[in-house]
Design a protein that fits this description.
CATH superfamily: Cytochrome P450
CATH class: Mainly Alpha
Helix content: 55-70%
CATH architecture: Orthogonal Bundle
CATH topology: Cytochrome p450
Strand order of the largest sheet: 1-2-3-9-6-4
Shape: globular
Radius of gyration: 26 Å
Number of strands: 11
Structural class: alpha+beta
Strand content: 5-15%
Distance between the termini: 101 Å
């Protein structure tokens, strides 16, 4: 038994505390040794230093380690390109990897409590309603008609540029076309002049939205963003300024949508043609709720398809033999006269015709493999876990899979992983061969798999078919280095400047 004299002696107490401290440290060390943690590849500050080439930097690390950690002041960040880990995160142990409070705080100013920022009941509610809408034939037919209409409008603008031999920013035109489509499909709002660029309001909104997306991504590498937000300086000042423009426009759309709902009254048959009308029927459809829904659909329906098509055109310019092969398939499948107008040709793009365009789909898939519109997707580990590779992750760690890096991994795609080769998607008979969604992660997988996947393919194939049936695309400067802009989505920095040449008859 320890005597009172011992306890009253400061030196003895210090010695006892030291022994206890050593014992506790040894116990903790043994527990830590019992778990393996992924190799440390750097810190989050290295991401900051490499932000201008962020996805190149992360691809380099993925080439050294299938899964690695970056150390941060508040949590580790784990990045994986291992398909087994991806399946575990997105499907097998889905409930343990959510958006979490960390992602929610970063994304909230831009996307609020929309489907891409929340977990639990809020996510399930929005997912359920959205899933119902995307499954209806009415919406499929309605959206296809709109995609054809906007594609014809785009072809008209490209035709004018082709006749005058004028350089066009095809990414900018695709972004306007996609925004025009998504506003009509999702909200029943027809902005007739948006694609011509004559509507300053929508141009201002698009620019502000893109800037806000870039500033939001910056938060992932800037640990000082909460301080900047409190002081309204730097990147956070820029974000606040641009979000005020975004919100002003979106709330205007909401006001108009609510007015249309009140006019329609009980005429639900008309309202069900667009997606947001169903949310408008909900009792809790207040302005903030609708704002978050709308911006989620905008970022999903505008940016992803337009960005993919911009990279697709870039790949076709770099690989003219692929461009000709796609155009030949479109011509053979539709079998229409060379004198057909773009509007008449659009009518031939039925579901059956689009389904037969196997090489076009393969070329789009190959573009998505190398240039996924969402290059990194981050989750939060909600409790201590061990991934299939045998390494552990801690509660609170950010765990992200990397579609951009995965598309370039030789252990996944073979020695030619960095090459654009659409035939990798086809069998010997030219039939499309689907790949595992945990290997080809452009549309996520598991419970959060993209609801608009088939809509996206339909829109991209319609736009591609009309454009490539009538035009040949070439880079305005073959020596220009095309680079992405660090954003939530993989936007081409500075746009894509191309010439469009009228396609001669076959």
């Amino acid at each position: 038994m320890i005597s009172l004299n011992f306890l009253s002696n400061p030196i003895s107490i210090a010695a006892l505390l030291l022994l206890i401290s050593i014992s506790v440290s040894q116990i903790i060390a043994r527990k830590l040794r019992a778990k393996k943690y992924h190799p440390i590849a750097g810190t989050v500050f290295h991401q900051l230093l490499n932000f201008h080439r962020l996805h190149h930097y992360m691809t380099d690390l993925a080439g050294k380690y299938k899964t690695y950690r970056l150390l941060g002041p508040f949590r580790d960040e784990v990045y994986t390109s291992n398909p087994e880990n991806v399946e575990y995160i997105l499907k097998t142990h889905f409930e343990n990897f959510g958006k979490g409070e960390y992602n929610h705080k970063i994304l909230k100013d831009l996307l609020g409590d929309g489907i891409f920022t929340v977990d639990g009941e809020k996510w399930r509610q929005q997912r359920k309603v959205s899933s119902y809408e995307f499954s209806t034939k009415v919406l499929r037919d309605y959206s296809s008609a709109i995609f054809r209409k906007t594609a014809v409008k785009l072809a008209g603008i490209v035709s004018e540029a082709a006749i005058s031999n004028k350089v066009i920013d095809i990414q900018g035109l695709l972004m306007k076309s996609a925004l025009d489509s998504i506003l009509q499909v999702s909200f029943g709002i027809d902005i007739e002049d948006s694609i011509q660029g004559s509507d300053e309001e929508i141009t201002k909104f698009s620019t502000a939205f893109d800037t806000s997306s870039s500033m939001t991504l910056w938060r992932y590498v800037d640990v000082f963003w909460p301080i900047k937000k409190a002081l309204n300086i730097g990147s956070e000042g820029t974000l606040k300024k641009n979000m005020s423009i975004v919100d002003e426009y979106i709330y205007k759309l909401i006001h108009n949508a609510l007015g249309q709902r009140d006019k329609l009254g009980n005429n639900t048959a008309v309202r069900k043609e667009n997606i947001v009308s169903r949310f408008l029927q909900a009792e809790n459809s207040d302005a903030t709720f609708l704002r978050d829904i709308i911006l989620s659909f905008v970022i999903a329906g505008k940016d992803t398809t337009a960005i993919t098509l911009a990279w697709f055109v870039y790949m076709l310019c770099k690989h003219p033999e692929v461009q000709e092969r796609v155009a030949r398939e479109i011509k053979d499948v539709t079998n229409v006269e060379d004198s057909t107008t773009s509007a008449e040709f659009a009518g031939s793009l039925t579901e059956e015709a689009l389904e037969k365009m196997q090489f076009l789909t393969a070329a789009i898939n190959e573009t998505l493999r190398l240039y996924p519109p969402v290059p990194v997707d981050a989750k939060i580990c909600l409790s201590d876990d061990t991934l299939p590779d045998g390494f552990s992750v801690r509660k609170g760690d950010m765990v992200a899979y990397q579609p951009y890096a995965m598309g370039r991994m030789k252990f996944i795609w073979g020695e030619d992983a960095d090459q654009f080769r659409p035939d990798r998607w086809l069998n010997g008979d030219g039939i499309l061969q689907p790949q595992s969604p945990f290997k080809f992660t452009a549309f996520q997988a598991g419970p959060r798999i993209c609801l608009g996947k088939e809509f996206a393919y339909r829109q991209m194939k319609i736009l591609s078919s009309i454009s490539l049936r009538f035009f040949i695309f070439k880079m305005s400067d073959d020596n220009k280095i095309v680079m992405y802009k660090p954003m939530i989505n993989l936007l081409i920095d500075g746009g894509l400047q191309v010439y469009a040449i009228p396609r001669p008859p076959y």
